[in-house]
Specification:
- The strands form three sheets. A four-stranded parallel sheet has the order 3-2-1-9.
- The chain has one domain: Alpha-Beta Barrel (TIM Barrel), CATH 3.20.20.70.
- By secondary structure, the protein is α/β, with parallel strands linked by helices.
- It is built from ten helices and nine strands.
- The N and C termini lie far apart (43 Å).
Length: 217
């Protein structure tokens, strides 16, 4: 077995989570949208950006944003295997989000020496991560998996674990999650709606970002 997940990565994740209450979950279809979209989000107060590996240009977008948007803290999402993981690292990802937590992927992140927030739905999945030293998880899909009620229940026996719930979270329910002591931030795509990206309406996205950033005011 590889070395346990370093405390330094837990500290890094906590530092990132403290920067803003919401991590935008971003799908980029056109590479020309990458930099202005990221700039609008950073200007609105959301510097921690999860670029999902759901499109052909996602890796190029990570690289462009990392190199051109001052203040952006860029990571990859929808990382599902070792190949995705290495591609995301090579593109310049500072951290990794995954939708699930297979044993091989948990081990791969340890071997690659990068901060990762594994996705879990169940306590058993979480415990597999805990055995390797992980203490920060993505609860996904949050609303479908039981929402705040599940996270409240987990807090008792696992008081040192913190979560970034993602999936079904929007402005109207984000505060319910952020009020929980074991929630460090939430992930959401409501701040990056497809129609606004398609229209290139960066001012509207900046406004949505500022509204989301104010959730921790």
């Amino acid at each position: 077995m590889t070395t346990a997940y370093p405390q330094a990565f837990i500290n890094q994740i906590d530092e990132l989570a403290a920067l803003a209450p919401v991590v935008p979950v971003i799908r980029i279809d056109r590479i020309e949208d990458a930099v202005p979209l990221a700039q609008a989000l950073v200007d609105g107060g959301l510097p921690v950006l999860e670029i999902t590996l759901r499109t052909d240009v996602a890796l190029d977008a990570i690289k462009l944003i990392s190199e051109n948007v001052k203040g952006a803290r860029v990571g990859a999402g929808t990382v599902t295997n070792r190949t995705n993981l290495q591609q995301a690292i090579d593109a310049g990802s500072e951290y990794i989000f995954t939708p699930g937590a297979t044993p091989d992927l948990l081990e791969a992140a340890l071997e690659a020496n990068i901060a990762m927030i594994p996705g879990i739905q169940s306590v058993s999945e979480m415990m597999a991560g805990l055995d390797l030293g992980y203490r920060r998880f993505k609860f996904f899909p949050a609303e479908a998996a039981g929402g705040t009620a599940v996270l409240k229940s987990i807090a008792g026996p696992f008081s040192d674990v913190r979560f970034c719930p993602t999936g079904g979270i929007k402005l109207s329910n984000a505060s319910d999650y952020l009020a929980l002591g074991n929630v460090m931030c939430v992930g959401g795509s409501w701040v990056v709606p497809d129609d606004l990206i398609e229209a290139g309406d960066w001012d509207a996205i900046r406004t949505l970002a500022a509204e989301a950033a104010a959730l921790r005011s």
